[in-house]
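## tool: complex_structure
## caller: assistant
## args:
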Amino acid sequence: MSQYVLRRLLIAIPSLLGISVVLFVVLALAPGDPFSELATNPNVPPEVQAALRAKFGLDDPIYLRYLHWLNAMMHGDWGFSFVSRMNVDTLILQRLPATLYVIGSAQILALLVAIPVGVYAATKPYSLFDQIANTFAFIGFSLPTFFTGLLFILIFSVTLDWLPFVYTTDVKATGIHWVLEMIRQAIMPVAVLGLFQAASMTRFVRSAMLDVIRLDYVTTARAKGLGQATVIVKHVMRNAMIPVVTLIALQMPAVFGGAIVTEQIFRIPGIGSLLISSILSNDTPVVMAVTFVFACLVVLFNLIADVLYGWLDPRISLR
Amino acid sequence: MAPLLEIKGLKTHFSTDDGILQAVDGVDITINKGETLCVVGESGCGKTVTAMSILKLIAMPPGRIAAGQIIFEGRDLVPLTSNELDDIRAKEIGFIFQEPMTSLNPVLTIGEQIAESLRRHEGLTRKQALERTIEMLKLVQIPNAEGRVHNYPHQFSGGMRQRVMIAMALACKPKLIIADEPTTALDVTIQAQILDLLQDMKERFGMAVMLITHAMGVVAETAQRVVVMYAGKVVEEAPVDDLFGDPRHPYTQGLIRSIPRIDLDSEHKTRLEAIGGSVPILINPPVGCRFAPRCKFAMDVCIEKEPLLREVKPGHRMACHLGDAQLGAAS
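## result:
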């Protein structure tokens, strides 16, 4: 098992290198220059600009720049943000907690909604409950988060004035009030992102359950007189969760991507909004680092999906 | 002596998009204590549905027990809810399914799957249940039972899995075992082993067996009494020797004639006789005898009136309009 994980991690190295090359080239080809602001700033003399460009190696050929970047990365130097005037790794670490808090809570909310609803709907297919759940699921994943997000802000912040619509990391309170305020401001983004995730997940859980529920071994379990609850939880759910867990793990990178939009709407200072603002201000080192972090997440969650698969299904041995 | 299980006028219907499918339409079957009863018939004649109806294991909906009684030890099972039936399932009536490859849960160890019914019905602790499970696995001759109990189904062959299924069905020592084509999915040598094992277990625990099969060879080898089903109805019922020696219904005769024989010398060898046509679809079946369209002896009355089961000699009943003399000539 540990050997398998180690081998998979080693295999990940070339693919991450490939990804970094592509990212680097695309960013190098993209219009815009991190120093464009300096160029138009009359207070910076041209010779200072040229000195800075030479210092940062901006006029070197692209392969040299890439090798510089790679060498620095290997030594743990993620680069320097021209806009924020601080190290990229500090910047990312500053922004990460907010993202993890919102995305983590949204995923938990999604699972808490999707699994019970999907399982119950599958035990009574085409019942009233199932129809209602299906309808809500369709509405849920038909509405994009930028629409529901704005709708929520309009209803709960503007009209009702119950919840704040700007997320802030420096809440001016201590103790229990700080906790309450953190929860209060996360309600809307978590609900928007979580319910969107829950909608498609519910459909998936339901169909995975329905696939299993008609199999022979479920009839065997019923013939043992175990009772409906045991049959569903122990025999059906255990098997139906195998594809569901895999799907959720593989979806995680996409969730981070989806969070970019939500973070923009609710002004959450997470890494999604960091990425957007860096792209807008041509802050190449930050863009490079954040997209590379996303790439690592994709590789990591693929690995997690495979390991979970082997753990849930004894027929698969990881070698 | 009161029979162990008495099925009276059972009708199990399924609603489909094309109408009501009358899979089982008025079946009477009686099983006595300690007896082996074989139910035979072609695929699609309602054998499995009859068996599944006993413990309400059919999918409901679309399935529905439309009429009839299923009296087990003096108690009618039809009005019971699925919850109430849970006390009878496995504890009083054990079930062995056709497909050992798909009838075991792939993500649970076989030990867990046997032990869970022991814990449910006998109230055993985890440890006691494990001991009993190992005992059962030894009984069904699984080598190295102590080690194998922790294995998953995919680590067993088809024959071994069927042994596990038998151990599972027998674990709570039920009074009746329903075996739905337990050997159909296995190869021939394994078939014989499984049938022997079933016979052996039956004698050891003194239970009754309802064996569903379409193989006449299996019937001859195991049964005491035989029920022949056709298109959702019982067409003949007789002790096994009588059924093979003096089959009355044209369908039974056809079934027996379709058994390949190697004991005849080449002069007497004839082409294997098959029954032409296939089982009718049981949505809006014709009013008369359901076998009439395939019957060589069909008369006008067969199409107009349904033949009822009648006793032709003690313990031998059949449903056909042909008179005794004509039937004798037919066979």
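## assistant note: The first strand of chain B starts at residue 5 and ends at 16. Chain B touches chain A at residues 55, 57, 59, 82-83, 85-91, 94-95, 97, 99, 102-108, 113, 116-117, 120-121, 152, 154, 165, 168 (CB under 8 Å). Handing back to user.
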